[in-house]
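Field: sequence (string)
Field: structure_tokens (string)

Example rows 1 and 2, in order.
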Amino acid sequence: MGWVPVVTAIATAVLAVMALGFVAYAVPLLRQASRTIAVLERFLVSIERDSRPLLENARSMVSEANRMALKLRSEIDGVVETSQDIRTRVTNAVDATEDRLLDLEALLDVLQEEMEDTVLDVAAALRTTRRGSAVLGAMKRVFLGPGKKRKRKR
């Protein structure tokens, strides 16, 4: 027999011992991994059990928030619509007031002109009356004499 079969036999034996060592080392690791997986499964089951009510509450809160957001949006739309209506009314009122003020200004201009004309007419009438009175006084003095005054009746 040659050295090749001996080396092959030794190498095979070393590989077998190494495989046995690996298996001997891996079995406890696999057992530990199996226990860890079992613990993780129990943990995940408890998380699922405990988180289910939280998820349901979160869903109901999101649903309630969506409902409130829709209601708030509706209210905001109503406020915007009311604001636009009020702004339109105020604009119309301002326009109407401006028109009325322009009409009032025109009326006051006409009244002022009429008052000026009337005052001038009254002044002219008073001037005429004074002149007429002065003429009558002069005629009275001529006809009645300078010292005689007419007696007034009471």
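Row 2 begins here:
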Amino acid sequence: MERHWTSVLSLSTGGPAVPLEWAVSCVVGRALRGGATDMFAALGAHPWAYPMLEVVHILGIGLLLGNLVLLELRVFGFASDLPVASLARLSLAIAGLGFAMATASGLLMFATQAEELLANRAFTAKMLLLMLAGCNAGWFHGRRSLQRLDGGAKALMVASTVIWLLVLTCGRWIAYV
């Protein structure tokens, strides 16, 4: 019997194969019947689940920004006895973890009040700034700035910090706009 990737979700786990169509139809069907909406509404109304998402979001932001600032300080010459490559490997890995935490928790928080957030100008500005931060990071790493440590690298690091501070500001303003 020929198996196709669309008909089997996983053959590598050693467990029973789950048809992909069945898994997708369960998720999509539940969402179409309002199950996802109900789930996210319950998440938003839960006495401690939503506040814990906020805690995870803030912790992720702290890990992200703290490590980016640490790396920026090294690029600007502080702690010059630390090798940039070693510090970058560690700080960017932790910053990536922080970004993943902030993204996952942010998406769940968004799902609980998507309509309100889409109408909020501070939220829109935050999303645009996040895209700009991604472009800045892509440019920074694409030009191999950590190896060059030139004026361009320093300018992109300052731009990164400014963008992330604006992301934080917009994130705080969401509740008040």
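free_text_note (row 2): Confidence is low (pLDDT under 50) at residues 1-15, 22-33.
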